[in-house]
Amino acid sequence: MIVSHLFLGLITLFGLSQAQWDENMWEDRNTIVHLFEWKWNDIAEECERFLQYKGYGGVQVSPVSEHIIMANRPWWERYQPISYLLTTRSGNEAEFSDMVRRCNNVGVRIYVDVVMNQMTFRMGTVWGTGGSVAYTDIQYYPAVPYNSSHFNPDCGISDPTNPSDTRDCALFQINDLNQRLDHVRGKLVDFMNHLIDLGVAGFRIDAANQMWPEDLEVIFKRLNYLNTNHGFASGARPFIFQEVSDLGGDAISHREYLHLGRITEFKFSVEIGRMFRGFDQLRYLTYWGEGWNFMSSNSAVVFVDNHNNQRRNGVGGDLILTYKESKQYRMAAAFMLAHPYGSTKVMSSFAFTDANMGPPQDGNQNIISPGINADDTCTNGWVCEHRWRQIANMIGFRNAVRGTGVNDWWSNGAQQIAFCRGGSGFIAFTIDGTISQTMQTCLPSGTYCDVISGNLINGQCTGKTVTIGADGLGYVQLADNEEDGVLAIHINARV
Ligand SMILES: *[C@@H]1O[C@H](CO)[C@@H](O)[C@H](O)[C@H]1NC(C)=O
Predict the structure, then answer these.
(1) I need a labelling partner for 129 at 20 to 30 A (CA). Which of 241, 457, 465, 485 fits?
(2) What is the pLDDT along the chain (495 residues), one digit of tens a residue?
(3) What distance in angstroms lies between residue 179's CA and the mean position of ligand 1's atoms?
């Protein structure tokens, strides 16, 4: 911790990259929700009708640039750009721009998933979602333009333990951009600066480990400050979080990218899945974070699952929890949101049976909008984990406990734990047996609504309540066979 703080301090001193670790959120907000494959108009509405009220700080949107159209429309077609025109099935540039403005107006930031590493597979002459043509076999993308001189050679990633193979060679016939070239850097910088001018707060860097950190550094330094017309502080740098899936043993280490911004901490995703599947005892979570050999908290973006590993396509295999194991998933999400470690991200999926399946679409391959039920859940094939009561209410918990650490840790020595966040929040978990005892909650005296089993509506709690005395003690009743094995109370949910 001390070493990494010193390191960050030195970077700031030399002005190499300023605050690309800051999400640039409103002060009373937290957590990015990944509205995977949503349309821009639907996201704008979601910011206004739901996200702002629950306290969500931002939305990660799917890649925005024109991409290839593939048979059956798999979700990963969006990771094969044809140009940097902002036209996809999610909407056009006017709709994107309108979404960013409307979300910023209600305090919800937009982060764009950017595909900088590559263009498309080589598959002949193709047309993109914006109508542009690409001659992929000769690596000619006239709408950018890129030509064959801008791509890495087809040398094949023969040795995965050799970092330069991964970064300098094309993977599986994909046209792999060479970010060492000024032309390529310029196109990427122009694309990202255009998005910054439209009001975005930052970027997810897809496949960061497949690009050289020194090339990324040049590109990130050339990014504009955030647009003050969208409420960003003057001099604010775009938030950067990089996809590096290293679990500690890879040839390409996440450490090579620490000075550029935050990084996806995949160990978190794997370990939280393992723990809430019951493969180890919850009592060990007392050391959660750096104590588990994760990267430092202020470098990490954390998540229970993401759009890759929820399909068993990526790191973590079968350990990863998804919406399909909904109780364990909600418990893991509650723990993530209750614990101070990392910058938190919530996945919001569409239902899938096949790993390649794209979002819900009509007969003309237009994406279908989510419908919303009276209990806040979604229809039309959208899972909307971010709207599940237990997850949405934990955003409010995380806001209530801002700036506090973990204290008054309790466990039964096995699968039951509880802890306080300063004097602002208390949470208990069980995956084996019943907790029924008086516990220190660290909260001021009063009656509190358990935001897991219910909502606080007009001063009335629809779920369980806990009454706390002047000594902070309260009687906690929680069984492992309840809908959730979690009970959470906080200072802003007093009955
Ligand atoms: C590719 O584009 C560059 C401009 O960046 C140009 O100088 C070069 O002649 C082009 N090469 C080919 C093979 O078309």
Answers:
(1) 241
(2) 334 444 444 444 444 445 699 999 999 999 999 999 999 999 999 999 999 999 999 999 999 999 999 999 999 999 999 999 999 999 999 999 999 999 999 999 999 999 999 999 999 999 999 999 999 999 999 999 999 999 998 776 666 677 777 787 776 789 999 999 999 999 999 999 999 999 999 999 999 999 999 999 999 999 999 999 999 999 999 999 999 988 888 888 999 999 999 999 999 999 999 999 999 999 999 999 999 999 999 999 999 999 999 998 778 889 999 999 999 999 999 999 999 999 999 999 999 999 999 999 999 999 999 999 999 999 999 999 999 999 999 999 999 999 999 999 999 999 999 999 999 999 999 999 999 999 999 999 999 999 999 999 999 999 999 999 999 999 999 999 999 999 999 999 999
(3) 15
Q: Report d(CA 480, CA 228) in Å as an integer.
A: 49
> Would residue 206 show up in a list of annotated catalytic residues for this protein?
yes
Report the C-alpha gap between 242 and 262 in whole angstroms: 6
Confirm or reject: Cβ of 135 under 6 Å from ligand 1: no
> DSSP string covering 197-248, please?
HTT--EEEETTGGGS-HHHHHHHHHTSPPP-GGGTPPTTPPPEEEE-----S
Asked whether 183 lines ligand 1 (CB < 6 A), one says yes
Confirm if 495 and 486 have CB atoms less than 8 A apart: no
* Ligand 1 near 181 CB (within 6 A): no
Q: What is the reported pTM?
A: 0.95
Dihedral over alpha carbons 25, 28, 34, 40 (to 10 degrees): -70
23, 45, 215, 243: the catalytic one is 243
Distance (angstroms) between ligand 1 centre and the Cα of 149 equals 6
What's the 170 CA to ligand 1 centre distance in angstroms?
Answer: 20
**Ligand 1 atom at minimal distance to the Cα of residue 181:** 5
Nearest CA to ligand 1 atom 7: 149
Nearest CA to ligand 1 atom 5: 183
Q: Which of 307, 363, 369, 387 is nearest to 91 (CA)?
A: 369
Write out the two tokens for 430: 């069980």
- Distance, CA 145 to ligand 1 centroid (Å)? 9
